[in-house]
Amino acid sequence: MLNRPRLVWLFAGVLLGLATGCGSPSSQATQPDVTQAQVRVPVPGSKMTAGYFTIHNRGLTPLTLTGASSPEALSISLHTTQQTEGTMRMRPLGDLTLAPDEIVRFSPGGRHMMISLMQETPLTAGSDMVINLHFADREDLRVPFRISAL
Ligand SMILES: [Cu+2]
């Protein structure tokens, strides 16, 4: 019996990989796709900044993002932003589970990473900061975040 739906699914996955311009080898097809990874240039003198990215669960099972860390940061927290009585408030996001093929965006005014930097290292626009994303169900993902004047 021909297993046509599975063939179509695999083919779609290949097309998706091409469309997103992902250079990873096809053996890594289930690796989460992280794009638009950016860290805001900190205000001069500040050790706090924010990071944003888009994550796509390309696997066939749920993916749970539990946190992030960096050799250049004392701590990184995942936050969400909620409007309460006209005020924007940040709250811890907690574990974030993505269904297969789900895409979640961290963007200014919404979900973000709160980054407490190790020291007042000048993070220059255009350079990269490595951030490791942690998951409940797979090994860490090492992502270069572009330092940007967002
Ligand atoms: Cu925050």
In short:
The protein is mainly beta and 150 residues long.
CATH architecture: Sandwich
Chain-averaged pLDDT: 85
Largest sheet: 10 strands, mixed
Strand tally is 10
Report, as a whole number of angstroms, the end-to-end distance. 54 Å
The outline comes out as globular
Oligomeric assembly: single chain
What count of structural domains?
Answer: 1
Poorly predicted sequence stretches spanning 5 or more consecutive residues: 7-11, 13-18, 23-28
CATH topology: Immunoglobulin-like
Rg: 17 Å
Q: Helix and strand succession?
A: HEEEEEEEEEE
What topology emerges from the helices and strands here?
Layout: H1 4-19, E1 33-40, E2 48-56, E3 63-69, E4 73-84, E5 87-92, E6 96-98, E7 103-106, E8 112-117, E9 128-135, E10 141-148
Parallel strand pairs: 1-10
Antiparallel strand pairs: 1-2, 2-7, 2-8, 3-6, 3-9, 4-5, 4-8, 9-10
What can you see in these coordinates?
With about 150 residues, the chain is mainly beta. It has a single domain (about 25-150), classed as Sandwich (Immunoglobulin-like), CATH 2.60.40. Helices cover about 10% and strands about 45% of the residues. The chain has 1 helix and 10 strands. It has one helix at about 5-20, and strands at about 35-40, 50-55, 65-70, 75-85, 85-90, 95-100, 105, 110-115, 130-135, 140-150. Strands 1, 2, 3, 4, 5, 6, 7, 8, 9 and 10 form a 10-stranded mixed beta sheet that branches. A hairpin with a 2-residue loop joins β4 and β5 (about 85-90). The radius of gyration is 17 Å and the shape is globular. The protein starts with a helix and ends with a strand. Copper (II) ion (CU) binds near residues 79, 90, 112 and 114.
